[in-house]
Amino acid sequence: MSLSQEQLNLIAEWDMLKKESAALVEREKELRKKCCDLFEDKSKGTKNLELANGYKLKAVFKHNITLKSLNDEIDTVTAVSTVLDKIEATGAAGVLIAERLVKWKPELSLTEYNQLPDNFKQLIDTVIVTTEATPTLELVEPKNK
Fold first, then answer.
1. What's the whole-model pTM score?
2. How many domains does the chain have?
3. Would you say residue 85 lies in a domain?
4. What is the pLDDT along the chain (145 residues), one digit of tens a residue?
5. C-alpha–C-alpha distance, residues 33 and 26, integer Å
6. CA angle, corner 76, sides to 75 and 82, nearest 5?
7. Does 80 reside within a domain?
8. How far is C-alpha 52 from the geometric centre of its chain's CA atoms?
9. Helix, strand or coil, per DSSP, at residue 62
10. What is the domain extent for residue 11?
11. Long-range contacts of range 52-60, CB-CB < 8 Å, 24 or more positions apart?
């Protein structure tokens, strides 16, 4: 397939903008961190830094909270289940707390799905929604010889 000069220019412009945007994203992260370092109080929550002429710099400090395994030999699901069992064992209040404390999100295993026989695939397909994802695009440079 032979591409026109206009199509080649389109690819070149996309490649240039992709590289520029990656650099800009990285620089924005660096500057955001430096600006956040201006705040004395970096505890969780919304903080404001008064600037001139009524402007203010607003930062929202957050914490990412995730679940982890107890050690390298136990997977996270088993570890969390073990702890929830201990909470439940404390009594009726513990049972209620354990039921609400962790959300279990169903996730489809594509490996298993792709191996399903048609009769099972037809069943699970009733609860699957497939949408088009954003395609990836890469300009591959020639290898040096």
1. 0.66
2. 1
3. no
4. 899 999 999 999 999 999 999 999 999 999 999 999 999 999 999 999 999 999 999 999 999 999 988 777 788 989 999 999 999 999 999 999 999 999 998 999 999 999 999 999 999 999 999 999 988 888 788 888 6
5. 11
6. 95
7. no
8. 36
9. coil
10. 1-40
11. 59/35
Please check whether residue 82 lies inside any domain of the structure: no
| Beta carbons of 36 and 59 less than 8 angstroms apart | yes
Rounded Cα–Cα distance for residues 90 and 23 (Å): 53
Place of tokens 């959300």: 103
The answer to whether 56 and 39 have CB atoms below 8 angstroms apart is no
Mapped onto helix, strand or coil, the DSSP state of residue 45 is strand
Are 47 and 65 spatial neighbours (Cβ–Cβ below 8 Å)?
A: no
Tokens of 36: 């956040």
Name 60's bridge partners: 46
Comparing CA positions, the residue from 95, 75, 76 lying closest to residue 87 is 95
Strand partners of residue 46: 60
